[in-house]
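User: Can you predict the 3D structure for this chain?
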Amino acid sequence: MRDAFFEALVEVARDDERVWALTGDLGIGLFDEFAHAAPGRYLNVGIAEQNLVGVAAGLAYAGQVPFAYSIAPFVTSRPHDQIRVDVAMARANVKLVGVGGGLAYGHLGPTHHAIEDLALMRALPGMTVLAPGDPSDVRRAARAAAAMDGPVYLRLGKNGERDVLPDGTPFVVGRATTVREGSDITLASTGAILPEALAAADALAATGIRAAVLHFGTVKPFDGEALAAASARTGAVMTIEEHSIIGGLGSAAAETLAEHGTGARLRRLGLPDAFAHAVGSREHLLAHFGIDAAGVVRAALELLERRSPLRAAA
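Assistant: Here is the predicted structure, written as structure tokens:
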């Protein structure tokens, strides 16, 4: 996802001389191609994330389109006051880009985990929150962010993710993507956890359970109509996010289903109300918190009150 973002950023910078790239001393070599394609429009402000956001806001006030890039908690939590006052209140045309959303920086511990960033950004008035699901989705989301007039938070995975969405899948801000149709349960995911949701749908299909998969590349504005329609068809919804179950996709889904009165059963799958103090790779932590494909299958069976065929045969 990281490389896909930079590919798209270079493209938009070549087409639009207003586009700038800023970072807080992150990623040696990452910005080389951008600096070559857009000379004079790359700034490294050093390890000073509050200044990173302040400089980005100043550029936006001057009519530029700055992309401020850092590790997700460093670009959302550490400079939150600057984002709130200088960017959101002013409706400044700043694009905040957080790499390593969720548990991507697993071994570095909870200081580097982004498990509350969606909640922080979603709560800010006027802030658009994007969480693409694979590298191709990232390219489209980056271009969509550049085309928007107003503050955007773009949440990325890290790197090495594979493409899982069908070729040519559009990215429309505020619209969910139906990746798979199903009639028994709706699996709604956001961001880089999408491959786990799809793998879980495949495993459920082997047991005769037809799971619909909805990908929310936009968390705000939230496509409540798509979720309500899917919930009416399946009667059961499970949200899957590499984030706390508080304030992110699960909360958006709960609000939507309550307001629409669909009566669908809901299960929010993500991190509980706790920091991830366990140490290990992203894969280890996803399994630890039950948000890998196997954990999604277990939770879906519980929501549907069905036993695993393996358990039934035991």
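Confidence is low (pLDDT under 50) at residues 307-314. The CA atoms of residues 231 and 264 lie 6 Å apart.
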